[in-house]
């Protein structure tokens, strides 16, 4: 049960076919099929079954895939820890961040960290809340920048920074704002900010019209164009508030305090701690109390 076989199985689980898995792994289709067969013999159960022109996981395969991903993540984390222990300034660092943090919080931090530690092998994954926390739980990320970690995952909050969510709109919609009738511009389902906005409206028992846009930038632009109001991080709209294209609305119960968290696993690698120390030197960041 080698690492190569596990990687092949996960690739098939993700791709849904031997051909696509082979293409992603840069190996032959026969090598993929042989690895799958060998893994099934080791386990004594079928992991995949034919479905149309592709493959689907059996119930056993679905269960095993989650373990395989965690094992592969642990192996990567172990390599990162070993390399970081030898020299933290040359170790790998796998960051994962929700979109808003990647857009508004990370750019200056990454630039200054790169300038200070240019030989760190840095990788960044950007995605919705569920994706980045899954990466931490599966050991595919060393550090996550997002909101509060969900219950049930092994996580250590290493630093935090204040973050206020405010309701904003162009001057005309802002002047006529009514939580129940004014249209709201929102991110797609799965976004943490979208979930917070929907919870905010549900708490007030209102159901205004919604316009769904696919990125933070699109939501900000849509609000500035007068398409509706939006619940956004004040950091994300500071420039628009300064130039008057957006106005902060005195909506009931706002601002919402939703701090940013830098979260690692139970035993952060030396290179992860190097980045956290750098983070704590930046304005606004502090250790959790």
Automatic annotation (TrEMBL):
Keywords: DNA-binding, Transcription, Transcription regulation. Residues 1-58 form the HTH lysR-type domain. It holds the Pfam family LysR_substrate. This is DNA-binding transcriptional LysR family regulator. Coiled coil: none annotated. Belongs to the LysR transcriptional regulatory family. PANTHER family: HTH-TYPE TRANSCRIPTIONAL REGULATOR (PTHR30126), HTH-TYPE TRANSCRIPTIONAL REGULATOR CYSL (PTHR30126:SF39). InterPro entries: LysR_HTH_N (IPR000847), LysR_subst-bd (IPR005119), WH-like_DNA-bd_sf (IPR036388), WH_DNA-bd_sf (IPR036390). The keyword DNA-binding applies. GO terms for molecular function: DNA-binding transcription factor activity; transcription cis-regulatory region binding. It comes from Actinomadura namibiensis.
